[in-house]
Each structure stands twice: as structure tokens, then as C-alpha cells.
Amino acid sequence: MAKAQRRYVCQSCGSVSHRWQGQCADCSEWNTLIEETAAVVTPFQAKHNLQSGGRALTLVKLDAEIALPERMTFGIAELDRALGGGLVAGSATLIGGDPGVGKSTLLLQAAARLARSGRSVAYVSGEEAADQVRLRAQRLGLGDAPVQLAAATSTRDILTTVGQGAVPDLLIIDSIQTMHSDLIEGAPGTVSQVRASSGELIRFAKERGTAVVLVGHVTKDGSIAGPRVLEHMVDTVLAFEGERSHQYRILRAVKNRFGGTDEIGVFAMESEGLSEIANPSSLFLTSRDENVTGTVVFPALEGTRPVLVEVQALTVRLASGATPRRAVVGWDSGRLAMILAVLEARCGLAFATAEVYLNIAGGYRVTDPAADLAVAAALVSALSERPVPSDAIVFGEIALSGEVRPVAHGALRLKEAGKLGFGRALVPAAQTAEGGALKLSSFKDLPRFVDHMLGR
Ligand code: TYD
Ligand code: MG
Q1: CA nearest 197: which of 252, 133, 124?
Q2: pTM of the model
Q3: pLDDT averaged over the chain?
Q4: Interval 398-424: pLDDT, tens
Q5: For atom 25 of ligand 1, which residue has the closest CA?
Q6: Cα distance between residue 141 and residue 138, in whole Å
Q7: Cα–Cα–Cα angle for 49, 55, 56, rounded to 5 degrees
Q8: Phi/psi at 368 (nearest 5 deg)?
Q9: Ligand 1 pocket by C-beta < 6 Å: which residues?
Q10: Which ligand is nearest to the CA of 97?
């Protein structure tokens, strides 16, 4: 009989190797490889291929009639939007986030809202005792919601319980890392346990039509803890993000088989739980009464929603020949280096002897290239000590040639700024968008923009 193959599975990325190593060859994490029992290959399986003996499937056309999946809305607009219009019955959703970001709070509030609207909801906590969850619910004013609560970690117990009689419309598992399947060996939280437990839960969802929501913790590098495999198994992956030191939280769809991944929900963590932020721009703008140098407002886009954020730059002249520091928070440092280079080479501004600090206010992260011009404006303003008018917004992409390029959704960005009382916008010349309430100044290239800023 063939010797059983040993296999080692990385607990961080799920890759499999046949030799133990201190460092995973795929994700370079240390001490993450753990031995797992491989599936036993019988001589019968090895001898026969899979091309006969199966059940013939009925193949269908793409345009065959189908009923649209039923969606359950929570009545929490920010959550419903991130989900693409509500939770689909029989779907599996994973919510990932750092410990303490507010996943349990969000799901408890969502569960209570859904239960109050007449749906049956089961909330299983593997991390907190039932009393703890109940205490929190009462503190949040949700004590009267007819949510079915249990503290359990055995997947078999959970599925036996909810599988009896009428299945719940929604089953929440908080968190999948605490769940244990007795079908296989291994401690809860290992890749094989997480995979087995979620596999069973997802199968239950598909077979019985219950929407299952799994909570997953996130590792320090930002992936959902251990099992990246989990992201492939579920229909929807939501990331719940936010700095713990800041109040706001963003719920972002990372993957959605039933909708787009370009929508976000914005919440604020308050003493009475999470509240919805219908107008996110107000959250990211610091008070804007004075003309401070080095700050510029940039209309960022989150999916189809404009969010106004403040770009802040500070430059410090260095007398000695020391290498000046460049520090960036909330933006790409490579892109900052590029903008500095274009400002030096095309506009003759000397940043080489200055330290440069760039920050996006409120702990927000910007990845949109449309922020280039706003960053350039903040840098020029900081270096020249001339403030950018506080009622102005700036956007545009900068090419290495110094050209200022138009960006996507200019009209949306302008409209949001107009709504919030901004008076003017500095935009690319080729941007075809009506300013509406805003006075537009357009620029073909960066030298002209710098001249305008310096009053030349
Ligand atoms: P929690 O939902 O337990 O986080 P997670 O499940 O993602 O680990 O939220 C924990 C944090 O939220 C905790 O640090 C306290 C804070 N919090 C509030 O500020 N207000 C509240 O009403 C609640 C319930 C929690
Ligand atoms: Mg929790």
C-alpha cells in the first residue's frame, strides 16, 4: 500500500507543500506551515478515471428564464448599499476586519433590525458568552428584538439546531475562526478547520436557503486571517475598515457575486453603537474657516459616491546636506516621489533640500490618480507658504510630461463639492464637466497650474 503523503498547509495563505519549512515559499510568512492529514487515495480511485459512471447533467442556455434572487434589506442604508441592495437569500457572506473594529456590533444591529422586520434571525457567537451579547444588545437598545441567540463553537451543534423545523432567514456566525468541525482533526482557527466549518455552513446556506454571514478576523497584513481560501468559497466578501483611534468605519465590498464591488457604507462608532453617515464628506474634512497653507480639498470617489477629503502637506527646509525625509500617510509614496519629480523637473520648484510630509486627514486612504493635482497643490502651497483658497477643490491626474489630464466622474465630484458649499474648482483643461454652482479654473499643464498658484 502506498505511504500516506504528508502535506503541510500554510495557515496564512493556504498554500500546500510536501516538506515542512520554516518560511512559507508563497507568502514568506514564518512558522505558518502545519501538517494536515491528506485525503486518502484508494487504489480504486487511482486506477479509474472520472470520465464515466457519473450522472448526466442537464446543460442549460444562458438566456433561460430565472427568478431574480430574493433580497433581504436590513433598513440600514449603508449596509444595504455595500451589499449591493440587500442580502441575498441562500448566499454566504464573509465580513472581515481587525479585532475591535466593530464587526460584532454591526451584525448585532443588523440582526436586530432584520428580526424586528419579521424575519427569523439566529446569531451564534463563538467568542462571547450569550450574556455578554445580550448585555450589549440591551445597552444598544435592541434587547426587545426577537433574535435567536446562542453561544456555540461546534458546527455540528449549530447546524443541527438551526436545521430543525423552519430554518432561519439569516444565520450569523461570529466568528468562523472559533468554529470547530468534528469531521476533521485540528484546532479551531487552523486552515483545515476553517475550511471544513465554512464548507458545511455554506452548504447549509445553499441547500436550505438561509443567508449565512461569517465573521472573519484579519491578519496584520490585511488578508482575512489564515484562510484566503475562504474568500473563494463565499459569494460576498465585505471588509470592515477603520482606524480604532478614529470614529468612522467603512464597509467595503471586496467581492460580490450578486452586485458591484464599488459601493461602500460609512458608519461612525458611537456610544450607542454604529450610526450611519449619509454624508461622509463632513467626516473627513477638518474645520475649514482659516486659510492654512499646505491643505487642499480633494473630491475622492468611493464607487459612485464622492467623498471630500483633505490633503495636507508640510515641507521643512534643511540647511545641511542631509538626505531629506519623505513621509506619506494615506497615499502612495511612489506617487508622491513622482509628483515631486515633475514639480522639480517641469516647474523648477526645489524640493530636493526640503523634507516633505504628506497626510490624508481623518485616516482616509486615497488610491485615485485624480488626487495628483490636489497633492501638487498642497505641496506647492506648503513650499511657497501661500494658502489654497479654502472654498476650492482640486482634482486632476498628472502625467510625467507635466500635462494635467482629465479624470473619471468629474461631474459627480463637482456636484458633491457644490452641495457642500464650495465655490470654485481647479480642474484639468480637458475635463468636460459643468461647474454648476462652482467657478471652474482649468489647467492644461502643471507649470501653468503652479504659475496660477504662485500668482505669476
Ligand atoms: P466589536 O463589535 O466587539 O468589534 P469586533 O467584533 O470587530 O471585534 O466592537 C468593539 C469596539 O467597539 C470596542 O472597542 C468598543 C467599541 N464600541 C463602541 O464604541 N460603542 C458601542 O456601542 C459598542 C457596542 C462598541
Ligand atoms: Mg467580535
Answers
A1: 124
A2: 0.71
A3: 87
A4: 999 999 999 998 988 998 888 777 889
A5: 273
A6: 5
A7: 105
A8: -75, 125
A9: 97, 99-105, 136, 140, 269, 271-273
A10: 1
